[in-house]
Specification:
heterodimer, A: Ubiquitin-like (UB roll), 5-stranded mixed sheet, B: alpha+beta, Aldehyde Oxidoreductase, domain 4, 7-stranded mixed sheet, 20 helices
Chain lengths: 81, 764
């Protein structure tokens, strides 16, 4: 099971839950699993979140692999000027 | 991304040198064509009627008299654009909401700022268009407005959006608010951190909105045919996102809009979002004549995005030997008329230079009656870092520790846990600090009364969707189609250099062309310091794709196994140790026979680039402060920055200098000034003062190169970081010169004089 940690700005949408373990194989599956558990998160995932998988930051990478022992962190999406 | 694009330390022929830029002759001879230079036969001139009020409900709009005016061919208002539901998309700075986009380009229920578009006219001449604007009757119900971020956050403040409830708090608030969103980052135990501190400093800082100040105002030319085919020439950092945004708000297929990104006279984040483009298309759609729209400088100031103004509070604690134990920030950012400021990125950048155990950062995104903010180099970071680096300077001075040593004691390094989530990878902050400390500027004697300041900055840098095509011509010369706009001036050179390096040919055999979106797959905006990193990655991948095809073609022509063919020094030749011999073929020789041996050869890259490497910078500045006038003179300025790899060092130096100059203007002079009526009072360069050449010394630069392991040449990106440290570096220098700490930007002569006088009064 991958260990998922939510950045604190997402806590209000999970009832304060900060992290959980999920059996998912990629980012898309993770988003779906999170949205199923926490419906209020739904609108805040694909367009507002970047995903850190084992230390590497991924943006707009729905098919990026998540291994069974991966450490995953959701952070605000990053852009720039 | 495959492992093949990881950094490889190898001898380089071209990358790292300083050749002439491919677009140089056009620029210096005036041949380069910017958006306002384009004209079509039969074109009309479009002009926009803008709100004179900061906040008002639109009761009615009567355009009949305007339409009756000779020469007027069309008028568009809110009724000509479909309303849109809440729908988010990425665009430069965070995400945009199409419900807001369609209301920002043309007001619907209310006008929300001075300058908000209310109607647009197309006429046969500019004078006719201007005359028509005066004939449009708008019945407004003027509403109370709010300009200041702190006032906007108060209960009972005039509400911009009655349906806006603060997101990010639980439970959902019962009352609507101008606070669109609250974000929070926590690491460790902040209270325990303050208890462990020997020194705690807390200060409040205020900054004003500042504009990107690009020299070229927004301009576009749109042509829509009777069958709904659109051509659009425009000044943009993202031809693809402009196409997408226009298509969405006009409910068209993206394939029906062909966007030509013209040469761009500066963007700095301000040209990531559409303004006049959908209006010009809509006017052309009504008239079937081309419509040209060029903003005046006044319109640029009143209606295009500045960056946020902000109110921030920083509280930090450290031990007496200079180890930071706690770092806390509250960041209140103006987002303008619609939500979506850079406060999330400002929050993440506030303290990310340091290895900290206890951090708490809260940010608020606040709507006010000002134009919707847009990205501006390292969006948000200069503002929050102004506060954090000022407090760090104060802590170092109170403890008698050298400010660079103080930073070195706390510096982030590989493996540092950030408070926003990930651990940092390979970074060069310590190397940059050490180069700063060793720089002659840092140890140069200072005359009495003058001051020296230091500050530092961090930016993530980004990758994102990027596509490129490399066409090998029949004579062996190469055309590189790039989808990232050459907004920084120099990225065409950088791309051509990397491609030439990959192919083993001279750089002048590569012609880089900024392609329109009909030629390539999707490219994200050129922003976030991604141009050379992500655009370069796509160019390298396309070049390697071409090399593979060249190898295959050579193997077929020479009738040898593919494994026997290596690509080296610009030609296909026998692979070392393969035991097969054949006559090598140069790229030109293969290209010459390509048509008769299987067809022409091209390389492609359609990728979503990941693996951006963060950048860190350190600035040193010397100032002289005139005690009688409050004028701050920049005497000497040095920028040191880890850029990973400088593909073309001269253009990297230009980026570092340009960022510093913009930061100097931000620090000392620039601000939006509003009257009590909510109307902008200084919409022009006479009253909104950007630095000119005589305001700044020659800015010294030091390029530090700690390669990004996720780029074939180690590139990180360099455009964002250099605008982050100037404000705090200059504030620290002023304190060094006068003993007075300024916490309000701009540190203009009246404010400096007032602060010096106040301090003298307190001393007396």
């Amino acid at each position: 099971m991958a260990r998922i940690t939510l950045a604190s700005h997402l806590f209000p949408y999970t009832g304060g839950v900060r992290g959980l373990e999920l059996d998912v194989a990629n980012v898309r599956q993770m988003f779906a699993a999170l949205a199923e558990r926490y419906p209020d998160l739904q609108g805040h995932l694909e367009n507002e979140v970047a995903v850190v998988i084992d230390g590497e930051v991924y943006q707009d990478a729905l098919l990026q692999t998540i291994a069974a022992d991966s450490e995953v962190i959701l952070i605000p999406k990053i852009a720039g000027g | 991304m495959s492992a093949s694009t990881k950094y490889e330390d190898k001898p380089l022929r071209i990358v790292g040198t300083r050749p002439l830029r491919p677009d140089g002759v056009d620029k210096v001879t005036g041949r380069a064509r910017y958006a306002a230079d384009y004209n079509l036969p039969g074109q009309l001139i479009g002009k926009v009627l803008r709100s004179p009020h900061a906040h008002a409900r639109i009761r009615s709009i009567d355009v009949s008299a305007a339409l009756a005016l000779p020469g007027v061919k069309a008028v568009v208002t809110r009724d000509d654009f479909p309303d849109m539901p809440v729908e988010y998309a990425a665009a430069g700075e965070l995400t945009i909401n199409y419900r807001d986009v369609t209301r920002n380009m043309m007001a619907r229920e209310k006008v929300l700022y001075d300058g908000h578009p209310v109607a647009a006219v197309a006429a046969t001449s500019e004078s006719a268009a201007r005359a028509a604007l005066k004939l449009i009757k708008v019945d407004y119900e003027v509403l109370p407005h709010v300009i200041d971020v702190r006032e906007a956050m108060q209960p009972g403040a005039p509400l911009l959006h009655e349906e806006q409830y603060t997101a990010g708090v639980s439970p959902r608030p019962g009352q609507p608010s101008n606070i669109a969103k609250r974000i929070e980052f926590k690491l460790g135990d902040i209270e325990a951190g303050f208890r462990a501190a020997d020194l705690v400093i807390e200060r409040e800082f205020n900054t004003k909105p500042v504009h990107q100040g690009y020299i070229e105002p927004q301009a576009c030319l749109a042509s829509c045919t009777e069958d709904g085919q659109v051509e659009l020439w425009t000044s943009t950092q993202g031809a693809f996102t402009y196409r997408e945004q226009c298509a969405r708000v006009l409910q068209m297929d993206v394939s029906r809009i062909r966007v030509t990104p013209t040469e761009i006279g500066g963007g700095f984040g301000g040209k990531n979002n559409i303004y006049s483009e959908p209006l010009a298309i809509a006017l052309s759609r009504k008239t079937h004549r081309p419509v040209k729209m060029v903003m005046t400088r006044e319109e640029v100031f009143r209606a295009t995005g500045p960056t946020s103004g902000a109110n921030i509070r920083i509280k930090m604690g450290c031990t007496r030997n200079g180890r930071i134990t706690a770092a806390q920030a509250v960041l209140n950012f103006q987002s303008g008329a619609f939500p979506g400021s850079s406060v999330p990125m400002a929050a993440m950048c506030t303290f990310t230079r340091y290895d900290l155990e206890n951090v708490h950062v809260v940010g608020h995104d606040v709507t006010v009656n000002r134009p919707k903010v847009a990205a501006y180099r390292a969006p948000g970071a200069p503002i929050s870092v102004f506060g954090a680096e000022s407090v760090i300077d104060e802590m170092a001075k109170k403890l008698g520790i050298d400010p660079i040593d103080f930073r070195l004691k706390n510096a982030a390094t590989q493996g540092t846990q950030t408070y926003y989530g990930p651990k940092l990878g390979v970074i060069g902050y310590i190397e940059t600090l050490e180069r700063a400390k060793a720089h002659p500027h840092y140890s140069a004697p200072l005359a009495p009364g003058r001051g020296r300041g230091v500050s530092s900055g961090f930016w993530f840098n980004i990758g994102n969707e990027t596509c490129s095509t490399l066409n090998i011509g029949e004579d062996g010369s190469v055309t590189l189609l790039m989808g990232t706009v050459d907004v920084a001036g120099g990225s065409r050179a950088a791309m051509a250099m990397m491609v030439a390096e990959e192919l083993g040919i001279p750089m002048d055999k590569v012609k880089p062309v900024v392609a329109d979106p009909s030629a390539l797959g999707f490219n994200f905006v050129t922003a976030g310091s991604r141009g050379t990193f992500a655009g370069g990655m796509a160019a390298v991948v396309a070049a390697r794709d071409a090399v593979e095809k060249l190898r295959r073609r050579a193997a077929k022509i020479r009738e040898v196994p593919l494994e026997a063919v290596a690509w080296k020094d610009g030609r296909a030749q026998p692979a070392e140790g393969c035991g097969v011999q054949f006559a090598p073929m140069t790229l030109a020789e293969i290209a010459k026979v390509a048509g008769k041996t299987g067809g022409s050869i091209a390389g492609h890259a359609e990728i979503n680039v990941q693996g951006a490497g963060p950048g860190f910078g350190v600035h040193i500045v010397d100032v002289d402060v005139d005690r009688e006038t409050g004028l701050v003179k920049i005497l000497r300025y040095t920028v040191l920055q880890d850029v990973g790899k400088a593909v073309h060092p001269a253009y990297v130096e230009g980026q570092l200098q340009g960022g510093a100059v913009q930061g100097i203007g931000w620090a000392l002079n620039e601000e939006y000034v509003y009257g009590a009526d909510g109307v902008l009072q200084n919409p022009g360069f006479l009253d909104y003062r950007v630095p000119v050449a005589s305001d700044v010394p020659s800015i010294d630069t030091v390029i530090v190169e700690v390669p990004n392991p996720n780029h074939p040449y180690g590139v990180r990106g360099c455009g964002e970081v250099p605008i982050i440290p100037p404000m705090s570096a200059i504030a620290n220098a002023i304190e060094s010169a006068t003993g007075v700490r300024l916490c309000d930007q701009p540190m203009s002569p009246p404010r400096v004089l007032q602060a010096i006088g106040k301090a003298a009064g307190a001393g007396n």
